[in-house]
Specification:
The termini are far apart. It is globular and about 55 Å long. The chain contains 16 helices and 8 strands. The strands form 2 sheets. It has a 4-stranded parallel beta sheet with strand order 2-1-3-4. Helix 4 packs across helix 5, helix 4 crosses helix 6 and helix 13 crosses helix 14. The protein is of the alpha/beta class. The chain folds into 2 domains: about 120 residues, Glutathione S-transferase Yfyf (Class Pi), Chain A, domain 2 (Up-down Bundle); about 170 residues, 3-Layer(aba) Sandwich (Rossmann fold), CATH 3.40.50.
Amino acid sequence: MKDISLFLGCLIPNRYPGIEKATKLILERLGIKWSELKEASCCPAPGIFRSFDKITWLTIASRNLVIAEEKNTDILTICNGCFSSLMDANCILKNDSHIRNDVNAHLKKINKEFIGTIEVRHIIEFLYKEIGPHDLSKFIEKPLEINVAVHYGCHLLKPTKERKLGGFECPVFFDELVEATGAKSVQYESKTSCCGAGGGVRSAMLETSYKMTEYKLERIKKAGVDCIVDACPFCHLQYDSGQVELARSGAVYDIPVVHYTQLLGLALGYSPEDVGLHLNKIKSKPFLEKIARTQKTSHVAYLK
């Protein structure tokens, strides 16, 4: 396994630093060698930049890839959008010499060159392939006795030709990682449909995006879960802040939203505060009390 550089992206440091902290905690606990990808820029967002100007998108993405190449490390993403943008750019530039030459002409202006020596990984794909659910379960100190709705997100699964994770219509790899923590993944209708945020929908058609979110939330609530577990801060934002917006029109769901690194952090024995759950918009007391019971603590500090 090549050493990895952690690519934080834009949303996590600016909106959900708890996910950043949880990720670093679990990587350390699992003994994974990592460093932060310093001087990285936005990935940039695949649903917007790629749609308007392919070469500009590739040039910005390739600069991030080259920084990792210079370190001789693979890139580890904790966001579906970052994963999609960087992985797809990496694939295009490795396989299309004409586009690669065009992009390198731009990179030459800053004394950089894309060669194609690294891979782009997603935290879910990385943990599944490099450690696996069975071995991951050996690290668990506080098994989580909760019911979970797993949200894969679009860019983790598609385009299927590049992702190569298998079972794209009925995927199980994320569910297996969730269940390695002791939690139960509960099946629900339209599990692999979009959260409503991606492809510029949230930016351009906010009302439509919230209708898509509500469609998912209705089905998740019907499944009777304790929380939603995602692997992307943009999906996280859409479910977390989206519930606040929907509540203003009377649609109250009160379903906590947890990034997988936060869930795993809880199972490894870190507190809800350690992994930043107090920074989320939705703070469900029943969920946090259940986590406290699992961890055999008397209270959850930030509910006091």
